């Protein structure tokens, strides 16, 4: 192993470790001997006061104050600012990011590292916003990198355009629609179907407002359309009374100006708006026209011909001691 000169382009601590290893391999073991070797290997253009340096720690401190290292730190920060995340090179990206943080002397300055990672995600607004929220209370480098990976690879955030399934919590059955009509209204039926999701119980979230596909769905988005993937029709509320008192049918129909198909989600763990909707959240599904109606199911059934279906209805309020019948688990369908 050969020794290397210090010219200001490497972090002083990293360089000293290399020289220490070189010295140990060559049976140079005392700090004073190692210090003398270090001094001999410093480029003459590096201007430090050698007479005032008596320990390796003092040497590292002096090298960090030299203009060449200050320029090197600024260069590392510029590299951090220009980094772009490429998923195919994830490990390489993380190694480069942490190396630049180390060289810029911000490796343990968590807020500075957060700012650079946030900037790196600027081309993906939804990921960037999720990152800002989820790292707010993180205080260590390891936690920060772990959370970054979780956000990148374990994306559970529901987005406009996402395929979802909605499981009724009380009965474990999925919100479903098929190409059959209610006998009374001749509208496409909606019911709580099987205990496993199928294409009939897969729904596509459509923004009916200013958001576009790929934008995150938030608790506070009041213009959401739910499109049944199998029939390509939207879930909407009807003024037609169901079999149970004070409940109304929900149906699926083609989107047009006359159908009322705006919905929004309420998070049962928090009433805070502008937080993300995530897979496995327990929610209320609320029809948001001039009046609010809450989606619910129960053990009551209805018939179409000889076929029996578990009823899904809407109601103008959540009834006391019956809250579980209004609860749905939202699941991201891959």
UniProtKB/TrEMBL annotation:
<feature type="domain" description="MIR">
    <location>
        <begin position="155"/>
        <end position="208"/>
    </location>
</feature>
<dbReference type="InterPro" id="IPR036300">
    <property type="entry name" value="MIR_dom_sf"/>
</dbReference>
<keyword id="KW-0677">Repeat</keyword>
<protein>
    <recommendedName>
        <fullName>MIR domain-containing protein</fullName>
    </recommendedName>
</protein>
<dbReference type="InterPro" id="IPR016093">
    <property type="entry name" value="MIR_motif"/>
</dbReference>
């Amino acid at each position: 192993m050969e020794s290397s000169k210090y010219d200001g382009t490497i972090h002083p601590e990293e360089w000293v470790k290399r020289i220490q290893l070189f010295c140990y391999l060559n049976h140079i073991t005392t700090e004073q001997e190692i210090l003398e070797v270090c001094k001999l290997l410093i480029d003459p253009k590096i201007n430090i006061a050698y007479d005032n340096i008596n320990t390796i720690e003092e040497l590292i401190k002096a090298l960090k104050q030299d203009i060449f290292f200050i320029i090197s730190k600024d260069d590392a920060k510029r590299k951090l600012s220009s980094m772009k995340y490429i998923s195919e090179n994830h490990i390489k990206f993380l190694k480069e990011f942490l190396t630049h943080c180390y060289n810029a002397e911000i490796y343990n300055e968590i807020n500075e590292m957060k700012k650079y990672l946030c900037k790196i995600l600027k081309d993906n607004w939804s990921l960037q916003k999720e990152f800002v929220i989820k790292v707010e209370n993180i205080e260590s480098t390891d936690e920060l990198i772990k959370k970054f990976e979780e956000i990148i690879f374990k994306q559970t955030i529901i987005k406009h355009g996402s395929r979802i399934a909605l499981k009724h919590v009380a009965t474990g059955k999925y919100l479903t629609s098929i190409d059959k009509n209610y006998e009374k209204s001749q509208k496409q039926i909606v019911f709580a179907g099987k205990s496993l999701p199928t294409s009939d119980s897969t729904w596509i979230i459509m923004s009916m407002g200013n958001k576009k596909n790929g934008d995150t769905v938030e608790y506070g988005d009041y213009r959401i359309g739910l499109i049944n993937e199998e029939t390509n029709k939207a879930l909407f509320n009807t003024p037609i009374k169901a079999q149970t008192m004070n409940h109304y049918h929900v149906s699926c129909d083609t989107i047009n100006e006359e159908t009322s198909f705006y919905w929004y989600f309420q998070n049962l763990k928090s009433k805070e708006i502008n937080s993300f909707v995530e897979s496995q959240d327990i929610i209320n599904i609320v029809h948001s026209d001039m009046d609010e109606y809450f989606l619910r199911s129960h053990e009551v059934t209805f018939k179409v011909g000889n076929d029996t279906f578990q009823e899904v209805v809407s109601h103008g309020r959540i009834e006391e001691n019956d809250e579980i019948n209004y609860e749905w688990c939202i699941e991201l369908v891959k």
